[in-house]
Amino acid sequence: MLIDSDGRNLGVIPLEKALALARERGLDLVEVAPEATPVVCKIVDFGKYRYQLQKREKKQPKAGKVKEVKFTIQTGEHDFNTKVQRIREFLAEGMKVRAAVFFKGRQIVHSDRGRELLARVAELTQDLGKVEQEPVERGRTLEILLAPHSRKGGGG
User: Fold this and answer.
1) Fewer CB within 10 Å, N or C, the chain?
2) Which domain holds residue 22?
3) Looking at the structure, do residues 7 and 46 belong to the same domain, yes or no?
């Protein structure tokens, strides 16, 4: 199956004839759907085609990424609000967020304050995301994982 550079379907054409048509126009013959029956090829400028593919990949949502926002138990109120705002932005973009409280020195004895801080973060972001992983201690850090609400339910 051959598609012209204008997007017109030229029908099923033998490979040799398709290659000759592409050469005649000074373009390349690119296989766009190898799994289709018959295989779909397109006459295009390969450099331009590759550029369009890369551009399309960049536009896709970054759902696979996990962003990390770090706190300490001494994080001031303004800094806390700024970091919570960043978490809200990440969740709105469809990214998962790991909120972590780092304990320095003897602060580790105040892990309850870290849990309170993370509970506050979860509460302030509950309209955009849910807690996917409850607070977990890893060495000198306490972490929760927040995930955006799924968009399948029609909003909410």
Assistant:
1) C
2) 2-57
3) yes
How far is it, in rounded angstroms, from Cα 10 to Cα 7?
Answer: 9
Amino acid at 55: K
Angle between helices 111-124 and 77-92 (to 10 degrees): 50
Q: Can you tell me which residue has the tokens 């990949």?
A: 57
| Residue type (1 letter), 151 | R
Asked if 12 and 82 sit in the same domain, the reply is no
Residues in the chain, overall count: 156
What confidence tens digit (pLDDT) does each residue in 22-38 have?
899 889 988 888 888 88
- Distance in angstroms between the alpha carbons of the first and the last residue of the chain: 44
Give the amino acid at 62.
K
pLDDT interval class at 88 (50, 70, 90): very high
